[in-house]
Amino acid sequence: MPSSGDDLWCRRYRPGPAATARLVCLPHAGGSAPFFLPVAAALSPDVDVVAVQYPGRQDRRGEKPIDDMKELADRVHGVLRRQPELPVTLFGHSLGAVLAFEVARRMEADGRPPVRLFASGRRAPSSHRDERAHLSDDSIMAEVRRLDGTASALLGDAEMMRAALPALRADYRAAETYRCPPDTVVSCPITVLTGDEDPKTTLDEANAWVKHTTGEFDLRVFTGGHFFVSTEADAVMKVLRAHFQDAAG
């Protein structure tokens, strides 16, 4: 298990010492790094798959969760810029999609732009909804149940749910209090992945990501709800493999 420093943030489940590209995976609200184990299994060893572990969950449960998107982006960016240099692609799901956008902004300001940003299961950064799930335990649990994500298995275990609530609350607060002006852009290409029955993102909201890049834009629609990345994993992996094949020339 990681013990200190940047290894607490960066999990490599299938290390690829000879990898020529890196994929940084950023989880959803309440999510954790192991969610991306299938991605590491599918793309390694050619791709250095880094799954980010946020504070406040699993082996980091003793740390205070971060409930501000900009602070979380600053922390993730600081860790990533210390990693061995490789071309970086960002993949974020739900909360992780907005976080990936903010990390991409910091990478570009730092002179090390990502190759591409994959924004999965999230409306465009400037497409605001007045959501308040983080305000009470009941509303958090109702939201988890509605989305039927990886955290929904905790609902039947009161002790585990109590342990998970601080991280869930912080994540939802970070997502729900985040604001982004409509003219905020990155220069890297953006590929948006969305489920055709996702209650969190309409097709119009997904397509609105086009306003946030001066580069290429691509929208991919999959069958499924908010966690189509799991139910349609083979199709999502096909998109990622094609990206890395194209990038390799």
UniProtKB/TrEMBL annotation:
It comes from the Bacteria. Residues 24-240 form the Thioesterase TesA-like domain. Keywords: Hydrolase. SMART domains: PKS_TE. The keyword Lipoprotein does not apply. InterPro entries: AB_hydrolase_fold, TEII, TesA-like, Thioesterase. Gene3D superfamilies: alpha/beta hydrolase. Belongs to the thioesterase family. This is Thioesterase.
